[in-house]
Write a structure and sequence with these properties.
single chain, alpha/beta, Rossmann fold, Alpha-Beta Plaits, 2 domains, 14 strands, disordered C terminus
């Protein structure tokens, strides 16, 4: 099977800083490809190269058979980009924003008008088409941002944190739209700091760290990278983030503990321990001595967050494991509305 996107030995430097270091990966046609990494891992630089926004020092980038070094214009015609920062003109209406961006890809006349209507309907904003974008809610602006990026019906869509800061309903609609785009034939590269989203919608996932590929595969394949640890989630009654962080830092120093972090939103201390650690009494004793009230205790098998932490030494996010709007997983599944 021929890959739709092929990146081989990509290297990009900013002075002495190596942002992307000999990075290689492929994306198959009609796939949602999760692209993850801690802050500073090189994700944005890589995506900027793939989307023709940034040059590079070495390597090969091939999209749909076109070499980026030789045919950037042809690649641009295939691309749709939904940036993390909302790229809208506040003085323009929703329809005018979509029309402006779609016209940059050569759409004119009836074709342009139909594309605008189709894109707004797709993200559930047809009823807001005449409203100025700066008068829309944050969730609506996120959805309009997507409409602007897909109105020209791109074959490859790059989505960088498309659900940041949105409400549950908008998140559900955005995730549904991403799955629908894939089912309609688009290839999607998707980044997010919400691990559950990536687990639920991505067909395959790449994890990069320090500009290099740390792991790539399906969720099940990535879980196979971590076989030496299990996770413990301790619900606390601290009521103060500082106490929780102090407790996690203390636990992280105990024998047999590989990592520990405090999740402020859920009030949980998440601890990764070696499988050989059968007695968790020292952990509980340490927490109680600090003054932590233990309300719940659960052991879990390794999950994707555990894998990410093991490979990069960082948690993907501090938001915790639960996020609204993510209920179905993988090809053919859709988030519930």
């Amino acid at each position: 099977m021929e890959h739709y996107v092929t990146v081989e030995k990509l290297t990009k430097k900013y002075g002495d800083l190596v942002a992307v270091d000999n990075l290689s990966f492929t994306v198959d046609e009609n796939e949602i490809f999760g692209f993850l990494g801690p802050n500073g891992a090189g994700k944005t630089t890589t995506l900027n190269v793939v989307s023709t926004l940034t040059d590079y020092d070495r390597g090969i980038v091939n999209i749909a058979g076109y070499d980026l070094a030789k045919d950037p214009a042809k690649i641009k015609a295939l691309l749709g980009v939904v940036p993390q920062e909302i790229a809208l003109y506040g003085m323009l209406t929703a329809a005018e924003n979509v029309s402006l961006f779609a016209s940059l890809y050569g759409l004119r006349g009836k074709g342009l008008k139909d594309a605008v209507t189709e894109a707004l309907e797709f993200v559930g904003l047809e009823g807001e088409r005449s409203k100025r974008s700066d008068k829309l809610s944050g969730g609506m602006r996120r959805r309009l941002n997507i409409a602007c990026g897909i109105a020209h019906r791109p074959k490859l869509i790059i989505m960088d944190e498309p659900t940041v800061g949105v409400d549950a309903r908008s998140r559900e609609m955005i995730l549904r739209s991403i799955l629908t785009l894939r089912d309609g034939g688009a290839t999607i590269i998707y980044t997010s700091h919400y691990m559950p989203e990536v687990q639920e919608i991505a067909d395959r996932i790449a994890i990069i760290d320090k500009g290099r590929l740390a792991a790539i595969g399906t969720e099940e394949e990535l879980l196979g990278y971590v076989t030496d640890r299990k996770s413990i989630r301790i619900g606390t009654g601290t009521g103060a983030a500082e106490t929780g962080r102090t407790a996690a830092a203390s636990v992280a120093k105990l024998a047999g503990v590989k990592a520990a972090r405090y999740v402020e939103e859920s009030g949980e201390i998440c601890i990764d321990v070696g499988l050989e650690l059968a007695n968790v009494s020292p952990i509980l004793k340490d927490l109680m001595e600090i003054g932590v009230t233990i309300r719940s205790f659960d052991e879990e098998a390794p999950n994707l967050e555990t894998t990410f932490l093991a490979l990069t030494g960082n948690a993907l996010s501090v938001e915790g494991a639960e996020h609204p709007g993510v209920t179905g997983r993988g090809r053919g599944k859709k988030p519930a509305m």
